[in-house]
Amino acid sequence: LLFHAADARLGAKNYAEAIRLFRDVHRRWPAGEMADDALHLATEAALLAGDPGTAAELDALFRKEFPESGLRLPQDLLAGRMLLAEGDRLSAVDAPEGDAQAKTAYEQAVQAFTRVQEQSAIDQTKSLARLQLARAWDRLGDHEQALTTLEPLVQAVGRPGAPDEARTALAMQSTALLSLKRYDEALEAATTYLRRPTNGPERAEAL
């Protein structure tokens, strides 16, 4: 019941309370069936809350206590997202070394997402890793590589059972094409996306 209460707080975007309850699950039942799930979701809650320090602490604890967890690759996906967020923070710093440090963080994110994509046997995890990998390439300014990464997802659009990740990829494709000044193709991708949008932040990009 405590785990489900924590998960409900996460769904309601009450991240601080979700973290507290997930920590409590881990503290009470450190060898329990849901202990690794609790630390994994607590890490996600901290990341969504914009609390990189807590996210890093929880990630380190997860890796120390559950190195063989079946959630290892989803945790690597979170770690990659943490690197993207760190790169964004560093790129906003008005200092000569900020851009170089941001580039390093983005390159490490590429490695993390590539590893997840190559090693996961779960289609949704692979699709999520592909989306995040494209974001990392975009941050590095390699829009051609972002397009190449997105292409398998874009090709799935319109097929029966196509995941939301495929439609999200359309909006990201449009943004990458726009960055390359391929305006007609960008418009076509955005229009296709808007016929079947997701509820993510990419909708605003396509508009």
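Second entry:
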Amino acid sequence: VIFIFLIRRYRMNRFAEIKYGKVHDIVETLQDMEWIHTIFSPLSVFIDVTNVNDTEGHPVQLGCIYENGVFKPPIVIKEYTLDDHKKIALERKTNLVNQKIEEGFYSEALGERKFFGSSKEDQENMEDMISLHESGTEVDLYVTAKPNKDADELARETITVTIEQLKAVWEDFKTHRVQCRKRGTEIDRAIRNSKFVQEVYQFLNWEK
């Protein structure tokens, strides 16, 4: 007598529990969805994800985002290294230097101490006037005696200056720009030499 055993290959079903738009748990079982509902709370939301992939072609896993009937890969929270933090701090340093350059500067080129705007627009205007006008030509220039930090805009006045005077003001701006960049270099060096994440951002301080 020959006994023949027929081995049935069972399919493992996968059911994903959805909470707050994410895959909170995955149950792998030979049972069906009806069995799932007898084991877990009736309020639990389960979806059959057997042979279901996310939008990148990977099997649905814990943390997948479930939205409009589609599973998206989990959001991976990157662990930042010391070098990552340095890179971020150096980018902020560059923005800080540009901000300081464009905040304005003092000049006594006109005989008394006055504050001049140095936004990119201000810089372009001064450069254009110097390059387009001949010596001795008079041009209008915006200045203010003191920067009004409480106001949305600087309280400016218009004065008439010669190109020679404007060139002297422009030289003071270039000195201001060099000083800002020099301070930026100091901050840059300190950030790059940092040994700990805790100290990296402490160097983003314009005042020494």
